[in-house]
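This section describes the prediction task in plain terms. A model, or a person checking by hand, is given the sequence of a single protein chain and must write out its three-dimensional structure as a string of tokens. No templates, partner chains or ligands are provided. The sample shown here is typical of the held-out split.
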Amino acid sequence: QVQLEESGGGLVQAGGSLRLSCEASTRIFSSYTMGWFRQAPGKEREFVAAIIWGGSSTLLADSVKGRFFISRDTAKTTVYLQMSSLKPEDTAVYYCAADWRSTLPTMSRGIGVDYWGKGTLVTVSS
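The expected answer:
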């Protein structure tokens, strides 16, 4: 069982930046493709970003390309989501996800993901 703990959410003004962190309780962190999803009030959960297991290739949703950046620190078993130029429409609960040796497209579909975090709230004020 892998536990994922997100942190870094909060209130920020439009145009600002935040960095989310997700620490995974596993020694084989490098074997998990890690992802970030978000769910805004009244909307379905949507894919935000993912980073491949064992490497550095990434996939980002079109809505965040050029503004968000995903990275991972294997030594710290942590994945990060650096968010810049935030918009009010980025307001959502952000969830971390881990999927064993998944491809990036598979992770982006958010189906059958092995583990989910409990989420951290990001609020962007206009």
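For orientation: The radius of gyration is 13 Å.
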